[in-house]
Amino acid sequence: MRPVPCRWLVLSLVFAAFAAADANVVRWAPDFGWIKSGGNRASLKSLRGQPVVLVVAPSPRHGKFRKQAKELQKTYQLLGNDKAVMVAAFTEEPGVIRSNIPFVLAANPGAVAQSYGVAGEFAVFVIGRDGNLDEISDRVLAGQRVLDIINNSFVAQRDNRRAE
User: Fold this and answer.
1) Count of CB atoms within 10 A of residue 40's CB?
2) For the chain, how many structural domains are there in total?
Protein backbone atom coordinates (compact mmCIF):
# COMPACT_ATOMS: atom_id res chain seq x y z
CA MET A 1 0.00 0.00 0.00
CA ARG A 2 1.35 3.38 -1.00
CA PRO A 3 1.52 6.10 1.68
CA VAL A 4 -0.78 9.12 1.18
CA PRO A 5 1.21 12.31 0.60
CA CYS A 6 1.01 14.75 3.47
CA ARG A 7 -0.52 17.58 1.41
CA TRP A 8 -3.46 15.35 0.41
CA LEU A 9 -4.05 14.49 4.02
CA VAL A 10 -4.00 18.16 5.00
CA LEU A 11 -6.32 19.09 2.12
CA SER A 12 -8.77 16.33 3.00
CA LEU A 13 -8.83 17.43 6.65
CA VAL A 14 -9.46 21.06 5.63
CA PHE A 15 -12.23 19.96 3.28
CA ALA A 16 -13.79 17.80 6.01
CA ALA A 17 -13.76 20.76 8.42
CA PHE A 18 -15.57 22.97 5.89
CA ALA A 19 -18.05 20.23 5.11
CA ALA A 20 -18.79 19.67 8.80
CA ALA A 21 -19.32 23.38 9.38
CA ASP A 22 -21.98 23.45 6.65
CA ALA A 23 -23.49 20.03 7.46
CA ASN A 24 -26.09 21.58 9.74
CA VAL A 25 -27.88 23.36 6.91
CA VAL A 26 -28.53 21.27 3.85
CA ARG A 27 -30.78 23.69 1.99
CA TRP A 28 -31.14 27.33 3.04
CA ALA A 29 -34.66 28.71 2.90
CA PRO A 30 -34.81 31.76 0.61
CA ASP A 31 -35.30 35.00 2.52
CA PHE A 32 -38.57 36.93 2.30
CA GLY A 33 -40.10 39.85 4.14
CA TRP A 34 -43.32 41.18 5.62
CA ILE A 35 -44.59 44.34 7.25
CA LYS A 36 -44.86 44.17 11.04
CA SER A 37 -47.81 45.70 12.88
CA GLY A 38 -45.80 48.86 13.64
CA GLY A 39 -45.12 49.39 9.94
CA ASN A 40 -41.49 48.23 10.04
CA ARG A 41 -40.19 45.58 7.67
CA ALA A 42 -39.00 42.24 8.95
CA SER A 43 -37.45 39.24 7.22
CA LEU A 44 -37.01 35.51 7.64
CA LYS A 45 -33.45 36.08 8.81
CA SER A 46 -34.83 37.95 11.84
CA LEU A 47 -36.58 34.73 12.91
CA ARG A 48 -33.41 32.62 13.13
CA GLY A 49 -33.88 30.41 16.16
CA GLN A 50 -37.63 30.01 15.55
CA PRO A 51 -39.30 27.47 13.29
CA VAL A 52 -41.41 28.89 10.46
CA VAL A 53 -44.29 27.34 8.53
CA LEU A 54 -44.78 29.01 5.15
CA VAL A 55 -48.01 28.32 3.25
CA VAL A 56 -48.31 29.49 -0.37
CA ALA A 57 -51.80 29.56 -1.88
CA PRO A 58 -53.81 31.67 -4.32
CA SER A 59 -56.05 33.10 -1.58
CA PRO A 60 -57.22 32.47 1.97
CA ARG A 61 -60.41 30.96 0.49
CA HIS A 62 -58.46 28.26 -1.39
CA GLY A 63 -59.54 24.80 -0.21
CA LYS A 64 -56.06 23.48 0.53
CA PHE A 65 -55.13 26.63 2.46
CA ARG A 66 -58.25 26.28 4.62
CA LYS A 67 -57.46 22.57 5.22
CA GLN A 68 -53.86 23.43 6.14
CA ALA A 69 -55.01 26.11 8.58
CA LYS A 70 -57.36 23.55 10.22
CA GLU A 71 -54.52 21.04 10.53
CA LEU A 72 -52.19 23.60 12.08
CA GLN A 73 -54.95 24.63 14.47
CA LYS A 74 -55.03 21.10 15.92
CA THR A 75 -51.48 21.44 17.21
CA TYR A 76 -51.12 25.20 17.38
CA GLN A 77 -50.68 25.34 21.15
CA LEU A 78 -47.73 22.95 20.90
CA LEU A 79 -46.37 24.81 17.87
CA GLY A 80 -46.70 28.01 19.87
CA ASN A 81 -44.67 26.45 22.68
CA ASP A 82 -41.90 25.99 20.08
CA LYS A 83 -42.36 29.68 19.10
CA ALA A 84 -43.31 28.65 15.57
CA VAL A 85 -44.30 31.46 13.22
CA MET A 86 -46.99 30.90 10.57
CA VAL A 87 -46.58 32.81 7.30
CA ALA A 88 -49.04 32.98 4.40
CA ALA A 89 -48.18 34.08 0.86
CA PHE A 90 -51.33 34.63 -1.22
CA THR A 91 -50.36 34.81 -4.88
CA GLU A 92 -53.66 35.92 -6.43
CA GLU A 93 -55.82 37.76 -3.94
CA PRO A 94 -55.43 38.87 -0.33
CA GLY A 95 -58.18 38.41 2.19
CA VAL A 96 -59.18 37.61 5.72
CA ILE A 97 -57.79 34.38 7.15
CA ARG A 98 -60.58 32.66 9.06
CA SER A 99 -58.51 31.04 11.77
CA ASN A 100 -57.55 31.73 15.35
CA ILE A 101 -53.90 31.15 14.36
CA PRO A 102 -52.03 34.41 13.82
CA PHE A 103 -50.53 34.37 10.33
CA VAL A 104 -47.94 36.84 9.07
CA LEU A 105 -48.58 37.90 5.46
CA ALA A 106 -45.60 37.85 3.10
CA ALA A 107 -44.93 41.28 1.57
CA ASN A 108 -44.36 40.09 -2.02
CA PRO A 109 -46.15 36.74 -2.29
CA GLY A 110 -45.45 36.26 -6.01
CA ALA A 111 -41.72 36.63 -5.44
CA VAL A 112 -41.91 34.27 -2.43
CA ALA A 113 -43.65 31.61 -4.53
CA GLN A 114 -41.06 32.05 -7.29
CA SER A 115 -38.03 31.92 -4.97
CA TYR A 116 -39.37 28.74 -3.34
CA GLY A 117 -40.07 27.17 -6.74
CA VAL A 118 -43.81 26.71 -6.25
CA ALA A 119 -45.03 25.11 -9.47
CA GLY A 120 -48.71 24.62 -8.64
CA GLU A 121 -51.24 26.59 -6.65
CA PHE A 122 -50.37 25.32 -3.18
CA ALA A 123 -47.26 24.46 -1.19
CA VAL A 124 -46.19 24.16 2.44
CA PHE A 125 -42.65 24.67 3.70
CA VAL A 126 -41.33 23.97 7.17
CA ILE A 127 -38.23 26.02 7.91
CA GLY A 128 -36.15 24.93 10.89
CA ARG A 129 -34.65 27.10 13.61
CA ASP A 130 -31.36 27.11 11.71
CA GLY A 131 -32.88 28.39 8.46
CA ASN A 132 -32.85 24.96 6.83
CA LEU A 133 -35.73 24.01 4.57
CA ASP A 134 -36.79 20.89 6.50
CA GLU A 135 -39.95 20.01 4.56
CA ILE A 136 -41.43 20.84 1.16
CA SER A 137 -44.89 19.62 0.20
CA ASP A 138 -47.57 20.38 -2.35
CA ARG A 139 -50.05 18.51 -0.15
CA VAL A 140 -51.67 19.52 3.11
CA LEU A 141 -49.49 18.41 6.03
CA ALA A 142 -51.06 17.05 9.19
CA GLY A 143 -50.50 19.35 12.17
CA GLN A 144 -48.78 16.53 14.05
CA ARG A 145 -46.45 15.99 11.07
CA VAL A 146 -45.43 19.66 11.14
CA LEU A 147 -44.81 19.41 14.89
CA ASP A 148 -42.75 16.23 14.43
CA ILE A 149 -40.62 17.88 11.73
CA ILE A 150 -39.91 20.85 13.99
CA ASN A 151 -39.14 18.70 17.03
CA ASN A 152 -36.94 16.28 15.09
CA SER A 153 -34.85 18.84 13.27
CA PHE A 154 -31.09 18.82 13.63
CA VAL A 155 -31.15 21.88 15.91
CA ALA A 156 -33.80 20.42 18.22
CA GLN A 157 -31.93 17.12 18.52
CA ARG A 158 -28.62 18.88 19.11
CA ASP A 159 -30.16 21.06 21.82
CA ASN A 160 -31.76 18.02 23.48
CA ARG A 161 -28.40 16.23 23.57
CA ARG A 162 -26.78 19.26 25.20
CA ALA A 163 -29.49 19.40 27.86
CA GLU A 164 -28.82 15.81 28.95
Assistant:
1) 7
2) 1
